[in-house]
Amino acid sequence: QVQLVQSGAEVKKPGASVKVSCKASGYTFTGYYIQWVRQAPGQGLEWMGWIDPKSGGTNYAQNFQGRVAMTRDTSIRTAYMELSRLTFDDTAVYYCASHCSATNCHNEGGYNWFDPWGQGTLVTVSS
Amino acid sequence: DIVMTQSPDSLAVSLGERATINCKSSQSVLYSSNKKNYLAWYQQKPGQPPKLLIYWASTRESGVPDRFSGSGSGTDFTLTISSLQAEDVAVYYCHQFYSTPFTFGPGTKVDVK
Predict the structure, then answer these.
(1) Which of A123, A126, A125 lies closest to A36, judged by CA?
(2) pLDDT tens figures, B48-60
(3) Helices marked H in chain B — which ranges?
(4) B83 touches B17 (CB < 8 A)
């Protein structure tokens, strides 16, 4: 069964950092990029960047450059997204996604539709 | 960056009637070498992650009911629900994966009239 399982909800203070994990199962972890997308309460979807689990190579959205770090541990099939210097505007649900579902795997580097998705991790920034 | 716009922002349709959502990209997402449009559609219900419906602008994902269809090319795309069912109440997003930063439309909320 292909799935991405994310870590649990977090509450952080402004200025702190948060690290969200995304554990993959049911497919070749190193074969497909992991994307990170966030969604503020009641808002749309914002792409944050990707990591190539095979090489560790990353591509970050300009909005997050210098503040985000995406890493992976291939031995436990897990990707991580760490966001630093949190502000209230970073309160959002953070999703990981990949490109190999139970019915369809497509490998064009990071240039694929997003499926499957993790269940999401709510990060709340509160003083 | 490619800007994605959607219209309308929301619509209410009677059960069994057609719902049409439009998506426009600020530049073409048609890749000339393979003639594919790097455009996907997702459905999102409250408290759930987005669910893939359509990719390559018009290819329905396995398991997605055939009342959902996608069309268009270049910069103009449409998602059609041919006969709205109660379970289709959701927000629908278009998404370009042609170039980074990948971008999504602002979403269209579909409700039952």
Answers:
(1) A123
(2) 999 999 999 999 9
(3) none
(4) yes
User: Chain A: nearest CA to B104, how far in angstroms?
Assistant: 6
Q: What is the β-pairing status of strands B19-25 and B4-7?
A: antiparallel
Burial status of residue B14 (CB atoms within 10 A of its CB: 0-12, 13-18, 19 or more)? exposed
Given a cut of 90, is residue A104 above it in pLDDT? no
Structure tokens at B13: 């349709």
Q: Which two tokens stand for residue B38?
A: 């790097």
- Asked if B62's CB is within 8 angstroms of A110's CB, the reply is no
B9, B54, B55, B100, best to mutate vs chain A, most A CBs in 10 Å: B100
Which residues fall within 8 angstroms of residue B32, CB to CB, at 6 or more apart? none
pLDDT tens for B72-113 read: 999 999 999 999 999 999 999 999 999 999 999 999 999 999
Nearest CA in chain B to A62: B101
Q: Are A114 and B93 in contact (CB < 8 Å)?
A: no
Q: What is the C-alpha to C-alpha distance for residues B22 and B13, in angstroms, rounded to an integer?
A: 15
- Dist CA A86 CA A83 (whole Å): 7
Does residue A14 carry a pLDDT above 90?
A: yes
